[in-house]
Specification:
The complex is a heterodimer of chains A (255) and B (257). Chain A is α/β, with parallel strands linked by helices. Chain A is built from 10 helices and 9 strands. Classes of the chains: A alpha/beta (255), B alpha/beta (257).
Chain lengths: 255, 257
């Protein structure tokens, strides 16, 4: 692990509001090629702000007050609310083609082709090829797929996911997570996955960082953290995952 | 078991869209029915019909033995209370907690004017909030505390049936846990009959006695909790249950997902 050069290195990052209120304090982590890192914590713990700092897209009034972010590759972000991330007045294929046009520097016609390929890869219906649609005409899960396509159109080395499944139903959530995992294997990008759901993070990521009030309280391999949490806050998060009894039988019994 | 609420062949249309399609559901006295389903399945519409906020197009609702008509009596309105998903939107930001809690008390004449103050304090106590909260406004509380205030308001008129429409969805996981614990204690203390709506199966498991599953306006399954989570009857229930992200197995089994 140590021999691989990290593609993203964050060292003692601190963010503060203009009113000098500290929002993120002394956060450090690194990411190697193809790795997935989970950032878990509750609202207000600074997870999203850390992601935005990596992207260089801090909200108005928040400034970086210390630390460094070193990254060799480009990054792209998948936002929590897909409808908010899409332009409601622009057809989705056009939106995607526009990103391809500017980021991949190809002709308008070729960008549309690439956009359609991307949408197909993400499992959106073929009917989009014939008739473009507005975001409001797609379901929440479909919109989220479009947003992931937008991020992938930038050919990122790092995919930053800011709670991409929180606004979705469980069955759709599973499909989106499967899609992300498959694409990661295919395209080999690294991923920072922000979520408050420890179960999702545990299934997706090999390493976890637990954040609380702007600080990382614990980090390490997913397995170690879940089995031997050293911080009481981590233990609290683990306990808050509500258990479900084991299901009997299998899917086949209905087929 | 006595039935607190019976729903018979309930149908609701929104324009050409059928939101509820011939729903038959029984709610037993002093039990909690967990209603699950994905967004758009009609869970909230059902809750709103029961609360009297939407008039059904067909079918009827029986409260005990009396039928709930389009126009309900004050007594009938009092009997069914509702807690909404988002406490930010359901509490009036310009009213102090004292006003929020005393309004239903006075409207339904639960206590006399002189005892309102005392009753408000008891209610806050019941939801584990401090008494000095009375003079504060909703924005001075955290999300979990605000939901507690909404619960206190719903309980203030001593309802027989409490409808909770995704009461923990807008909350953080740790806060969700404490609100669920509160629901469980209140349930035992007050012998509540509850209709608990959630899309989170973990939450449903933590609180319900019976589980009902809805999909596209239809009720696909109603089973006792233990049976539902282990051997669901319907294929769709199985699909829902298997889609829940699970924690990796602990070290004892050795197998790691």
């Amino acid at each position: 692990m140590m021999s691989i050069q990290p593609i993203l290195e964050i060292n003692a990052l601190s963010l503060a509001a203009k009113s000098k209120e500290r929002l993120v304090n002394n956060v450090s982590f690194s990411l190697s090629k193809g790795e997935s890192l989970g950032l878990v914590g509750e609202s207000g713990s600074g997870k999203s702000l850390t992601l935005r700092a990596i992207l260089g897209l801090l909200p108005n009034g928040v400034e970086q007050t210390g630390g460094t972010i070193k990254s060799d590759v480009s990054s792209a972000m998948v936002f929590q609310d897909p409808r908010g991330a899409l332009d409601p007045l622009c057809m989705v294929v056009n939106q995607l083609a526009e990103v391809v046009y500017y980021r991949q520097k190809v002709s308008r016609k070729a960008s549309r082709m690439i956009a359609l390929e991307l949408l197909e890869r993400l499992g959106l219906p073929d009917s989009l090829k014939k008739k473009d649609r507005y975001p409001s005409q797609l379901s929440g899960g479909q919109c989220q797929r479009v947003v992931i396509a937008l991020a992938l159109a930038c050919k990122p080395g790092i995919l930053l996911c800011d709670e991409p499944t929180t606004a979705l139903d469980v069955t759709v959530q599973r499909q989106i997570i499967e899609t992300i995992t498959n694409l990661q294997q295919e395209l080999g990008f690294a991923m920072v996955f922000v979520t408050h759901n420890l179960a999702i993070a545990a299934n997706l990521c090999s390493r976890l960082c637990v954040m609380k009030q702007g600080q990382i309280v614990e980090h390490g391999a997913t397995l170690d953290i879940l089995q031997n949490p050293s911080d009481p806050y981590t233990q609290m998060l683990i306990d808050s995952v509500l258990p479900l009894p084991e299901l009997e039988g299998s899917r086949d019994s209905w087929n | 078991m006595e039935l607190a609420l019976q729903i018979k062949d309930l149908t609701v249309h929104y324009g050409g869209f059928t939101a509820l399609d011939c729903i038959n559901l029984n709610l037993e006295q002093h039990t909690t029915l967990g209603l699950v389903g994905e967004s758009g399945s009609g869970k909230s519409t059902l809750a709103r019909v029961i609360a009297g906020l939407i008039a059904p197009h067909e079918g009827k609702i029986l409260l005990g033995t009396q039928e709930l008509k389009k126009k309900r009596s004050r007594e009938q309105r009092k009997t069914i209370q509702m807690i909404f998903q988002n406490p930010d939107a359901s509490l009036n930001p310009k009213h102090s907690i004292r006003q929020i809690l005393s309004e239903p008390l006075l409207f339904h004449k639960i206590v006399g004017r002189t005892d309102v103050e005392q009753r408000c304090k008891e209610l806050l106590n019941q939801v584990h909030l401090e008494q000095k909260a009375l003079d504060k406004f909703p924005h001075e509380f955290s999300g979990g505390q605000r939901q507690r205030i909404a619960i206190a308001r719903a309980l203030s008129v001593e309802p027989n049936i409490l409808i909770a429409d995704e009461p923990t969805s807008a909350l953080d996981v740790s806060v969700q846990l404490s609100v669920l614990e509160l629901f469980n204690t209140l349930k035992a203390e007050l012998n509540l009959t509850m209709l608990f709506i959630s899309h989170d199966l973990g939450v449903i498991n933590a609180i319900s006695d019976t589980v009902a599953v809805m999909r596209q306006g239809k009720l696909v399954e109603q089973s006792p909790k233990d049976q539902f989570f282990i051997r669901p009857k319907h294929e769709y229930s199985y699909e829902l249950l298997s889609a829940v992200p699970k924690m990796p197995k602990s070290s004892t089994s050795g197998g790691f997902l």
